[in-house]
């Protein structure tokens, strides 16, 4: 399904999630998989918001996922260890690198995929008003973007460890004035 409409442009993660939830709802999906974060807003909020709009369980930044019937167990890295989360399907999960072992598609699979129909979905196909999608439905907007200032060049200190430590202390005291 290709979700595309000029009305969807300019939205944030919340507006995108609202649209995607309405596209996913009639499918009756048991499992919604997404990446850890998107390249559009880099906010890591779209999949959790979809889960909220659909009223389904969610587990984020998952490194291992096991499904047994209507139950799933997700492992995720947290500071100081791993967390094990038990979910009842349907659920939404964001995937961390290493969750699966990618495999290459076979040539017959690629040829079959070329013939598959890709259904296009626009604003008229979702049950949302134009004011709830795109820029009009966004809860936030980008006001300004600017590059970080250039950093000064790195200064390499020659000598053995004792000389380097002495010179570093002098530079921190006299040039950087932080000690």
What is the element layout, followed by pairings?
Blueprint: E1 2-3, H1 13-24, E2 31-35, H2 46-54, E3 57-68, E4 71-78, E5 81-88, E6 91-95, H3 107-115, E7 120-121, H4 161-174
Parallel strand pairs: 1-7, 2-6, 3-6
Antiparallel strand pairs: 3-4, 4-5
Helix pairs in contact: 1-2
- What radius of gyration results from the CA coordinates? 24 Å
Strands ordered across the widest β-sheet: 2-6-3-4-5
> What is the average of the pLDDT values?
90
Q: Which segments are poorly predicted (pLDDT under 50) over 5 or more consecutive residues?
A: none
Q: In what range is the share of β-strand residues?
A: 15-25%
Q: What fraction, in percent, of the residue positions are helical?
A: 10-25%
Order of secondary-structure elements? EHEHEEEEHEH
Number of strands: 7
Largest sheet: 5 strands, mixed
Name the overall outline: extended
Number of helices: 4
End-to-end distance: 60 Å
Structure class: alpha/beta
